[in-house]
């Protein structure tokens, strides 16, 4: 993880929010309004719809629409992540060295 333990915690929090926000624990209609509003923008919602299509049978172009939307998320993540990886890695290495030099974190 580029951000170390903080990145791992953020990733876990995002995954929990996605599971809760896409009907993984309760149907979307029963979720609080905040989750219902962000539901269409979460990648998990498109993955679950595509999975339902593969399990229940293909109807029209729903599967390919959902896969295309997930492809857009992938493209955006790559366009943001690839250029920022090196500068963020360097900054985190400096931060880790600084923290290690204090002796506080063992």
From TrEMBL:
Places the protein is found:
Membrane
Q: Which domain of life is it from?
A: Bacteria
Primary localization: membrane
Q: Which organism is it from?
A: Bifidobacterium cebidarum
Name this protein carries in UniProt: Phage-related protein
**Record-annotated membrane-spanning stretches:** 70-88
Keywords in alphabetical order, please: Membrane, Transmembrane, Transmembrane helix
Question: Which ranges of the sequence are coiled-coil?
Answer: none
Q: Name one GO cellular component term.
A: membrane
Q: How does it sit in the membrane?
A: Multi-pass membrane protein
InterPro entries to which the protein is assigned, alphabetical:
T7SS_ABC-Transporter
